[in-house]
């Protein structure tokens, strides 16, 4: 990764198993930006984290030239704007296309994430309903992706990173609950995207550890039951 001068030092406060931290690490890796990764204990937050994100007190936090940026997808957009001269472009140049990308990110952050969270926390009929909502949301994403390698076109972009950061969690959630959320027969385009995205340079090395995510989800589900 390209180095940066002392005046532009970049630090990332996060956790290796966090899907939200993974989003930021993907953006930094794709842009080739050198940074210091500081592993945080979410049960024992550091003074640096509390100082850097006094409102939410959570990861991830990007510190660039001494200034803090919080919330994963806000950080990703900041990275694109701060290092806009470095390829690839994570956001479209056209204002309309950029608005559409932000629309799908908002969809993933709000409606989609809530349905997946319902599968994670739900039981019985409640969980089944959340699974059906998740599948319906995936079908909408399948339609949005149709005809493209990535949501960003030929290259990974904002929407890919937003959804891609959650992939390991979703796949391990399927495994723990024995539910199918990404159906290869009903969603062939999205299924192919999952494989393509997961093996892409800048992505595969920063995806959360599958075994640790499986252990976390299994432990949480055991508490619920």
Instruction: Using the coordinates above, name the CATH class of the largest domain.
Output: Mainly Alpha
Order of strands, main sheet, comes to 2-1-3-4
**What is the overall shape?**
globular
- The arrangement of helices and strands along the chain is EHEHEEHHHHHHH
CATH architecture label of the largest domain? Up-down Bundle
Q: Return the CATH topology of the largest domain.
A: Glutathione S-transferase Yfyf (Class Pi), Chain A, domain 2
Class derived from helix and strand content? alpha+beta
Distance between the amino and carboxyl termini: 45 Å
Which ranges are low-confidence, i.e. pLDDT below 50, for 5 or more consecutive residues? 1-7
The percent range for helix content is: 40-55%
Mean pLDDT score:
95
Number of strands: 4
* Helix count, DSSP H or I runs of 4 or more residues: 9
Beta-strand portion reads: 5-15%
Q: Strand count, sense and closure of the main sheet?
A: 4 strands, mixed
Protein name: glutathione transferase
Organism: Pinus tabuliformis (Chinese red pine)
Catalytic activity: RX + glutathione = an S-substituted glutathione + a halide anion + H(+)
Enzyme class: transferase
């Amino acid at each position: 990764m390209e180095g940066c001068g002392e005046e532009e030092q970049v630090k990332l406060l996060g956790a290796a198993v966090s899907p939200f931290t993974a989003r930021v690490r993907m953006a930094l890796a794709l842009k080739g930006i050198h940074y210091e990764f500081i592993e945080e204990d979410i049960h024992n937050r550091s003074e640096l984290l509390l100082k850097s994100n006094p409102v939410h007190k959570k990861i991830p936090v990007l510190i660039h030239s001494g200034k803090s940026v919080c919330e994963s997808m806000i950080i990703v957009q900041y990275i694109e704007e701060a290092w806009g001269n470095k390829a690839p472009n994570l956001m479209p140049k056209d204002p309309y296309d950029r608005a559409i990308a932000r629309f799908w990110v908002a969809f993933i952050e709000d409606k989609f994430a809530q349905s997946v969270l319902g599968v994670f926390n739900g039981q019985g009929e409640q969980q089944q309903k959340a699974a059906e909502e998740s599948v319906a949301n995936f079908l909408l994403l399948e339609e949005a992706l149709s005809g493209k390698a990535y949501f960003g076109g030929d290259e990974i972009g904002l929407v890919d990173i937003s959804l891609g950061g959650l992939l390991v969690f979703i796949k391990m959630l399927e495994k723990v609950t024995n539910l199918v959320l990404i159906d290869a027969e009903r969603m062939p385009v999205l299924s192919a995207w999952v494989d393509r995205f997961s093996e892409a340079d800048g992505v595969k090395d920063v995806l959360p550890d599958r075994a640790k995510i499986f252990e976390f989800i299994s432990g949480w589900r055991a508490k619920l039951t």
